[in-house]
Model the fold of this input.
Amino acid sequence: MAGLSQVVTLDDVDALMELLIDPVISGPIYNLPKPITRDNVLQFIEQHLFEQERGEGLLMISMTETGTVTAYHDVQVWPQWAAAELAGAISRDRQNTGKGGADASIAFDWLFEEIGVELICETGALDNVRTARLLERIGFSYMGEIESTLPGGGMRPSRYWELTKSNWADHRGT
Done:
């Protein structure tokens, strides 16, 4: 996703924490560590660096010129199924501006064309209306409800959507 994001490093702990400490940003996202502390964000980054080494995930951030994180993008890849999931959030000042949808479109193009997945799977909390509207607006098919495993243990009921590469191409008119 050249021009959009950079791969997170251990040097980005404090900057990422500044974005995630806001409960409006992090609250609805089940796969973020809770509570948001420096140690938990460090472990979150370390886990993603390990996933990156195995080719199963990638954690990226978007930053301003001054080093403020404006978004994070958490890619999980399941090569055996040619599938991926993209989680993430954008800062409050960029919400409801069309930036989230534009960034998501760039990310989906990248996942389908560069990474080579055939399917993108997404989940959202039952009350996460913003995610539901975004996914349905950009062509995802609502598949029903599932139970998502929380990082600290336990389960959360989630809404579940899918987008195939061919449906994305149809939606984009390509």
